[in-house]
Amino acid sequence: MTDTTMTPDLCVIGAGSAGLATAAGAQQTGADTVLVEKSRMGGDCLNTGCVPSKALLAAGKAAKMDQLASKYGVGYGPPRIAFSDVHRHVHDVIAGIAPHDSVERFEGLGVRVVQAHGAFTSPRELHADGVRIRPRRFVLATGSTAAVPPIPGLAETPYLTNETVFELTELPEHLIVVGGGPIGSELGQAFAHLGSRVSLVEMSDLLPRDDPELVDVLRRQLLADGVGLYERSRVAGVAPQGNGVAVDVERNGGRERIAGSHLLIAAGRTSVLDGLGLDEAGIERTNGRLKVDARLRTTNKRVFAAGDGAGGPQFTHVAGYHAGIVIKNALFRIPAKADHASVPGVTYTTPELAQVGLSEAQAREAHGDRIRVLTWPYADNDRARAERLTDGRIKAVTDTRGRVLGCGVVGAHAGEVIYPWILAVQRKEKVGGIAQMIAPYPTFGEVSKRAAGSFYTPSLFSARTRRIVRLLAKLG
Hints:
With 476 residues, the chain is α/β, with parallel strands linked by helices.
């Protein structure tokens, strides 16, 4: 590319979820926008994250439908898993969504796309393959990549991450997963459903950031699916073994070797910040992420950050939220601030696990005993009973006045059931609105109304209420 200089209103570095949302929003509001991307459009979410993992989970769920159908009195033979067709399904889903994130679509919107590596050469200038870009504002949206922990022997041992596991065309015979967070739990269960033997190793407890009572429901299901769980276990080392791998695990004061065919590292994410010339731009980092203020400005006030590198939960929906905050600040000079208190998270296992706001433990830490815990089991929900999906529960936390502090759901469709609680946490509302809503019957969402209504049970059915009713009855 010949040397040229661009002077747009906004230059966005990174074409993942945050960068694409920012570039599209900025261009459509009338800002001249340049988008710089060195690799694939769509970033991790489209190519190696949310989209392929959910497609694989859908295939795994289909593989287990015969077990659920038998509870309905419907019988058919065990499934035939053609893993090469599963691979094709996953990549067909990616291909179907890719045009929405493509260079062609964004150029059609008027965004100028530079397909090259970009790096700052000064606080106000970025170079990308011979192109000098001097915008009014920058947005760093370079995302994250799979974290690789310093495990002895890993450098000499073949392993997968979420960035390579979806390229498999043959089903692993025995997949060893290191990491029991959302990625490890989802992919481990998906491969177990498709017929792999799976061992999952987690140095803490399964899904350590979620409510232990809710996680236990998922734990029981993973064990029922045949997943070997090694919780509170340390990976002491890995090594090649024949055509597969060996993993040495320490737990309960002992040591055990697990032999498998494939090794998947799912030990979290790390921000992509190297090679960007951050020092030349006067942009500081902290704890592996960009140092930003509440308005998502970096230490160079002309440069904003959005997505995984900006702090906060590393979710695609947070990337979209950040894009809105950045556009308000960078283009409209509205001092909007990012608030992650009402950001929901969902682990898309079977059953799903969703959380928004504070968990019970977090609420007790912040408010002591001045909280109320409201629960309702799926087993008391008629729709769950009709569909034989009763293994789950909802658990909401309020203060003593009924203001919703948080909610967790484990069970079928938890990612949808959590919706009214997201709004309640975001608006700092009391539980009464959910308790009084007219919920369609029969739906899984009724568990929200039942749990919310339980806040009023002690007072509604108290001795005082009975006395009032008897008094009113005497008045005719």
